[in-house]
Design a protein that fits this description.
Length: 315
């Protein structure tokens, strides 16, 4: 049973003083790596978790959740986070933000810190490279966004459906030479699935596909837009709003005013700056809200693990 042991017991079992054990529990500096590892091994062996009253006495919130985003400047992830926060605040949780920068090593490091601090739950914006083994200790108290994994709760976007909506809208407007600007297949969702949906539509309607997959950055959209175009291109589908913003600048500078842009995102910045671009809303805001509610329900053991898919909407 948890909490049967005290810090004094952990100190005795590990062979270190109570102050050293306390510093490890609080993730404080002043403890060398070998000592920290030995104490953490004892903590894990005995499934030790400080009581809520002890956490409060250390000045820690009684209820804390972590949100690990891939990039702090991500337009889509910020939309999702904005709708999470009110749910957490309403239930008395203090959210903390962390950034992975698409690094699996950083995710592992963050999760280790959060585990040592006994954080109640985690929402993680997933990406290729994050493994199920890495997430295993958090199975019951973690929700993935934008990527699913067997046995874990997740909230995902309908990547195929979003591209199909855009392609159908363009086809109905008479476009038959539709190019694609996307993300490498190393990114399963935004990259592989959205590109495959484009290729599938082209095959179904006997269109000649033409695509380039540079990456996620706005600069990449600007620098690689030319590669996605042919002399016959009348429309350009972008896998994200960020790519579309870069492509739009390129088209304007080179007087390609006859090319119709379309993108997945419908972020406020895009709709404000470029209302002429056809967009699909993949449900970033709804995903954030759903993820927060799912995590809160899991923590309170009122909800089983679910894999939720948010439907896209043409704007």
């Amino acid at each position: 049973m948890k909490n049967r042991l005290t810090i004094k017991d952990i100190a005795r079992l590990s062979g270190f003083g109570k102050s050293t054990v306390s510093r490890v529990l609080n993730n404080e500096s002043g403890v060398n790596a070998e000592t920290r590892e030995r104490i953490e091994a004892v903590l894990q062996q005995h499934n030790f978790m400080p009581s809520r009253s002890a956490r409060a006495m250390r000045g820690q919130s009684d209820k804390v959740v972590a949100i690990i985003v891939t990039r702090l400047d991500s337009l889509s992830e910020n939309l999702a986070v904005q709708t999470m926060l009110p749910h957490f605040y309403a239930q008395g949780y203090d959210p903390i933000m962390m950034e992975s920068q698409f690094s699996a090593d950083k995710v592992a490091e963050h999760l280790g810190i959060l585990q040592r601090r006994h954080i109640d739950g985690v929402i993680l914006f997933g990406f290729t490279g994050v493994t199920e083994k890495m997430l295993e200790p958090w199975r019951s108290s973690l929700v993935l966004i934008a990527r699913d994994a067997p046995g874990f709760a997740s909230v995902c976007y309908d990547d195929e459906g979003a591209i199909q909506l855009l392609m159908s809208a363009l086809y109905e407007r008479g476009h038959r030479y539709i190019s694609f600007l996307g993300v490498p297949h190393t990114d399963i969702t935004t990259g592989y699935r959205r590109h495959q949906a484009y290729l599938g539509f082209c095959q179904q309607y006997q269109l000649e596909p033409h695509a380039t997959l540079p990456g996620l950055a706005m600069k990449q959209g600007y620098e690689h837009a030319a590669e996605a175009l042919t002399t016959e291109t009348t429309a350009l589908v972008c896998a994200t709003d960020t790519l579309a913003l870069g492509a739009s600048k390129y088209l304007q500078q080179h007087n390609h005013n006859n090319i119709q842009l379309a993108s997945v995102g419908n972020t406020p910045l895009m709709s404000f700056l470029h209302p002429e671009i056809i967009t699909v809303d993949p449900g970033y805001s709804k995903a954030g809200s759903q993820a927060a509610l799912q995590l809160i329900a899991q923590i309170s053991e009122q909800q089983a693990l679910q894999q939720i898919v948010i439907p896209s909407q043409l704007q």
